[in-house]
# Entry
Amino acid sequence: MKAIAMTAAGRPDVLQLIEVPQPQITTPQQVLVKLQAAGVNPIDTKVRSRGTFYDDPLPAILGCDGAGIIEAAGRDVENFAVGDAVYFCDGGLGKAGTGNYAEYAVVDARFIAKKPENLSFAAAAAAPLVLLTAWEALGDRARLQSGQTVLIHAGAGGVGHVAIQLAKLWGATVFTTVSTPDKARLARQYGADEAILYRDVDVAETVHKLTDGAGVDVAFDTVGGQVFWETVPAVKTYGDLVTILEPDFQLGNLKQARFKNLRISLELMLTPMLTGDVAAQMHQAEILQQCTQWFEAGKLNLHLGQTFPLTEAAKAHQIIEQGSTTGKIALTI
# Structure
């Protein structure tokens, strides 16, 4: 089969179109998926530039997110059948025999979900990683509750725009940061109650004005760096601050967070895949199954900013690395 693989760690041009053997079902719980699209995420660009998570030899097929049609199924597969359209987040971190920048993928059926009928394959392929990240951060880590206030950074980004929607579905009041008026309009379209132009105002000060001086119950940092530390004063005493990036302690310290008794959580939705935690991967599949229902009910939407053919994966990586992308990017296969 044809696949785009990283032939070395480096710039986007290390992504090359190659011919590799089609993956085969090796356990009774696996399915063979004829891929129609693959999501492109910042983690893909980081793996490509820094190297994979595994010692398996290169070339390696990237792409954690995929969507396609089941072409074959192991004897123990339940709830899915040949011909079903599915989407999932699995593989693509450098482990041999995995990755979704390709024509086919073999995936454990316990880790997949039915594709929303009202989403294209490209939109579905772009959804899993960001949905799981947002759900785990707000729902599992911060335990966001109805009636609470939440600050979501980069509300027009891939994670941010679905985090806004999940927070609204759970009954929260949502404030978000964006860079431009156009992105502010997009964030409000997805349910944000207030869109803060972070280049024009002090975010923490604005949040305190919006919350009568209290601060938000929950803050979700999808940017990292200085943004993490600048978010601390925006959170109320005994509030929650969740980040998907590792805090840089050269830029700040936890003195103020400790004084405010903040609960700080780290979110990495790749952990179950990297550690082989089957129960956690099954939980992620359950999240996607719930999201499928919400997509089909019109309660959840995915903003697909751009699509590229598989052969232009390097271009997709270049765009992500330039920053300030709106919504998600997918490769069509």
Q: What stands out?
A: The mean pLDDT is 97. The chain has two domains: 2-127+272-332, 130-266.
